[in-house]
């Protein structure tokens, strides 16, 4: 393929040595402001956001913020280039290093400019100058500019850059707005998936991608999803590409087996610690994946790009692995990493994590505008997903304001989640109705190849003047089914489809009222506490976390991840096989609606297999990572963490919980094997997840048996997560 990008090895990328922290000072009127170290200065210059406040990086007040911005405005690009941000050990990690792979001749031409001068220069210059300068910037420079821009400037500058990519369709062309159809289903029911794809196609979405997040990240399941999506693509004739957003290692294993992996996906992070420890991938592995797709991908020779990355402010801070770097800079570092692979698409999901990173509408909105600007400046094809969860103070209206501004700024694409309510991930994103509304407001079209197909299907009509309007089949998924009986069966397989009636490009009012009422019910469930008296019937002991209240628990995830100091001594080494840990997480109702059926099945199954099981623990205000401290304290081989998940928009979704199975690595042999597989030399645990346990997903009785089965696999193979999946696949090959 002629468009394969030559990727420099990490040791070929030269960057300066980190420097000791310097002191930056600024006097405003009669007040002097002092910032020790570049990281502190960068954090203080940004808009105040929850994640940076928790990390101690946000400015104390508006005056301090403006003092920091004034200092940054006067620094030269060379000053920043000469001071790469080091990790907590004083070392520049691989993600930071990748960001220094720039067009040095461009940088040399602007190195002596101050950031204030550069901002003014970009605002005065034609589009071509912004496109020229971007490749000469390291990511931190893009973050500095984002912190200096107001809303109008972020939009004005972003609008100057178009980044077009090509697979089967061309995405990002002038005058277009594309979408990724996201048919997520709580149990990966392929009939339900098909219905959600048909719903999306009927609304003119999916021209960027048919891309589904699987509930189960196994090679068998991901392959089945890919084959289903590809079958739909071929049967409908829709010109697009497909992707199943499993872990990149799972997808490559599917590719090896012959599955149609058109576009390869991975979530990425702005620090090595987050990328490796939490996302289980390294830069070297991404390099290998890029070349594997170039040589073996189904679109080899046809697509000009084939990688898909998701990012979003906050993951590094939420995991406590941000190296003292603020959220905006970490996000810019993600874009530096993505730029390395000339991706087909970037999807920004700022707002997905919750109130610990973005508390309200303003924080979510301003971060989305910053992210879009930084990605565009660095030359990336930016799709945006301004999204929110019900445990934050973000709302539908805030999300809609964000999409309006981002469309004005020239976003390449949005998500299409039917009704805007993700049935598996329990968060709220844009819908096909939103996409069409924005197209009509701004006079935009789908990708040209897709539009031709959609006109043939009667989904759109094109006037003699070239105006695109909704056609007679817009919003009618029945056109993709052979019979009413088939269509009815599909309707019955997808949860939370309350009707197909539309009002212009919007859902009909009666459907909207149902959606908003269910959101209100689910949001209320987040703020309920465990009813401890109802759990006394189980043989349990209570363990407190450092979160002393519901508000503290919701707004700072670190508190719920640690045992309260006064309770640490209550736990002694028990050297058991299994410890069951029950936490409310983000929905106490999920615990109360599932435990009566799930726990007896789980207990009987564990006993029947001869596992040594400690007395169960209930931990109010607990988070997923609490299991790691519990495993170490009681010396359990495996902790089965049963935890309430964040509620989604279906009224029943407030009852959904997950089982996070945390395996404690023990002994040098296990730790070495895990370290070699993950690339993380400090790895201490591996985790397998079973999600969407509730009446509308995996029923609790079935989930209990499934957890027992998975427990046996983990303890027998002394591995969990992606390493366990790989071991089981290798064993299957040997047995075959």
Description of the structure:
The protein is an alpha/beta fold and 736 residues long. Among the domains are: 10-159, Annexin V, domain 1 (Orthogonal Bundle), CATH 1.10.220; 532-735, Ethanolamine ammonia-lyase light chain (EutC) (Rossmann fold, 3-Layer(aba) Sandwich). Helix content is 44%, strand content 13%. The protein is built from 32 helices and 22 strands. It has a 6-stranded mixed sheet with strand order 17-19-18-20-21-22, sandwiched between helices. A 4-stranded parallel sheet has the order 7-6-5-12. Helix 12 links the parallel strand 6 and strand 7 (242-244). Helix 9 (139-148) crosses helix 18 (361-377).
The CATH topology of one domain is: Rossmann fold
> Judging from the principal axes of the Cα atoms, what is the shape?
globular
Q: Please write the CATH class name of one domain.
A: Alpha Beta
How many individual β-strands?
22
CATH architecture of one domain: 3-Layer(aba) Sandwich
What structural category do the secondary elements indicate? alpha/beta
Our Rg estimate from Cα atoms comes to: 25 Å
| Distance from first to last alpha carbon | 35 Å
> What does the average pLDDT come to?
95
Task: Give short descriptive properties of this protein.
single chain; 736 residues; alpha/beta; Annexin V, domain 1; Rossmann fold; 6-stranded mixed sheet; 4-stranded parallel sheet; 32 helices
List the SSEs and their pairings.
Elements: E1 23-28, E2 31-36, H1 38-44, H2 50-54, H3 62-74, H4 77-81, H5 94-98, H6 104-110, H7 115-124, H8 127-133, H9 139-148, H10 151-159, E3 165-166, E4 170-171, E5 178-181, H11 190-202, E6 209-212, H12 219-236, E7 242-244, H13 248-256, E8 264-267, H14 272-277, H15 283-296, E9 307-311, H16 315-318, H17 327-339, E10 345-348, H18 361-377, E11 382-384, H19 396-408, E12 413-416, H20 432-442, H21 448-456, E13 460-462, E14 468-470, H22 484-493, E15 502-503, E16 506-507, H23 509-526, H24 532-535, E17 540-542, H25 550-555, H26 557-560, H27 565-568, E18 578-583, H28 588-608, E19 616-619, H29 626-634, E20 638-644, E21 657-664, H30 668-678, E22 685-693, H31 700-717, H32 721-735
Parallel strand pairs: 5-6, 5-12, 6-7, 8-9, 9-10, 10-11, 17-19, 18-19, 18-20
Antiparallel strand pairs: 1-2, 3-4, 13-14, 15-16, 20-21, 21-22
């Amino acid at each position: 393929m002629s468009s394969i990008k030559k990727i420099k090895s990490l040791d070929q990328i030269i960057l300066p040595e980190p420097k000791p922290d310097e002191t930056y000072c600024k006097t405003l009127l009669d007040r002097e402001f002092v910032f020790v170290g570049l990281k502190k200065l960068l954090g203080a210059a940004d808009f105040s956001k929850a994640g940076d406040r928790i990390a101690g990086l946000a400015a104390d007040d508006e005056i301090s913020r403006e003092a920091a911005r004034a200092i940054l405005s006067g620094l030269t690009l060379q000053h920043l280039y000469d001071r790469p941000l080091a990790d907590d050990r004083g070392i520049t990690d691989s993600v930071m290093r990748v960001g220094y792979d720039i067009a040095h001749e461009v940088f040399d031409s602007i190195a002596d400019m101050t950031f204030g001068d550069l901002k003014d220069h970009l605002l005065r210059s034609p589009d071509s100058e912004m496109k020229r300068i971007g490749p000469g910037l390291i990511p931190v420079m893009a973050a500095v500019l984002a912190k200096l821009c107001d809303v109008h400037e972020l939009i004005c500058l972003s609008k100057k850059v178009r980044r077009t990519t090509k697979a089967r369709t061309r995405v990002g062309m002038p005058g277009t707005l594309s979408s990724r159809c996201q048919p997520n289903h709580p149990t990966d029911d392929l009939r339900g998936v098909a219905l959600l794809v048909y719903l999306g196609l009927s609304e003119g979405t999916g021209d960027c991608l048919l891309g589904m997040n699987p509930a189960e990240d196994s090679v068998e399941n991901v392959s089945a999803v890919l084959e289903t999506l590809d079958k739909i693509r071929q049967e409908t004739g829709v010109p697009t590409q497909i992707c199943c957003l499993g872990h990149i290692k799972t997808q490559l294993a599917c590719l090896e087996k012959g599955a149609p992996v058109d576009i390869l996906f991975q979530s990425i992070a702005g620090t090595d610690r987050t990328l490796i420890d939490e996302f289980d991938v390294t830069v070297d592995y991404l390099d290998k994946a890029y070349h594997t797709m170039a040589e073996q991908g189904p679109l080899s020779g046809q697509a000009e790009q084939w990688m898909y990355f998701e990012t979003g402010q906050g993951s590094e801070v939420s995991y406590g692995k941000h190296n003292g770097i603020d959220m905006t800079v970490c996000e810019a570092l993600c874009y530096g990493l993505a730029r390395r692979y000339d991706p087909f698409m970037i999807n920004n999901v700022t707002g997905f994590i919750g109130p610990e990173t973005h508390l309200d509408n303003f924080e979510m909105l301003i971060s989305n505008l910053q992210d879009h600007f930084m990605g565009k400046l660095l030359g990336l094809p930016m799709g945006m997903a301004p999204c929110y969860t019900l445990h934050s103070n973000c709302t539908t209206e805030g999300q809609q304001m964000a999409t309006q501004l981002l469309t004005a700024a020239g976003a390449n694409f949005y998500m299409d989640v039917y009704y805007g309510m993700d049935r598996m991930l329990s968060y709220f994103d844009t819908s096909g109705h939103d996409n069409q509304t924005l197209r009509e407001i701004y006079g935009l079209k789908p990708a040209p190849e897709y539009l031709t197909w959609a006109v043939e299907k009667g989904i759109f009509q094109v006037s003699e003047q070239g105006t695109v309007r909704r056609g007679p089949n817009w919003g009618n998924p029945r056109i993709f089914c052979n019979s009413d009986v088939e269509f009815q069966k599909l309707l019955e397989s997808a949860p939370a489809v309350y009707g197909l009636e539309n009002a212009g490009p919007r859902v009909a009012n009666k459907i909207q009222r149902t959606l908003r009422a269910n959101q209100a019910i689910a949001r209320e469930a987040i703020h309920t506490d465990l009813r401890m008296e109802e759990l006394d019937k189980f043989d349990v002991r209570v363990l407190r976390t450092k979160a002393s209240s519901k508000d503290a628990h919701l707004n700072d995830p670190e508190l719920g991840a640690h045992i309260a100091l006064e309770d640490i001594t209550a736990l002694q080494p028990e050297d058991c096989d299994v410890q069951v840990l029950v936490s409310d997480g983000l929905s106490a109702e999920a615990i109360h609606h599932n435990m009566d059926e799930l726990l007896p099945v789980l207990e009987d199954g564990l006993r029947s297999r001869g596992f040594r099981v400690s007395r169960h623990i209930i931990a109010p205000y607990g988070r997923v990572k609490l299991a790691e401290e519990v495993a170490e304290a009681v010396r359990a081989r495996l902790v089965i963490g049963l935890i309430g998940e964040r509620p989604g928009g279906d009224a029943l979704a407030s009852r959904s919980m997950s089982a996070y199975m945390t395996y404690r690595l023990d002994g040098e042999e296990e730790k070495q094997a895990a370290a070699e597989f993950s690339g993380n030399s400090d790895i201490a645990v591996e985790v397998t997840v079973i999600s969407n346990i509730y009446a509308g997903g995996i029923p609790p009785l079935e989930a209990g048996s499934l957890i027992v089965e998975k427990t046996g696999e983990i303890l027998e193979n002394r591995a969990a997560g992606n390493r366990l999946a790989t071991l089981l696949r290798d064993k299957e090959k040997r047995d075959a």
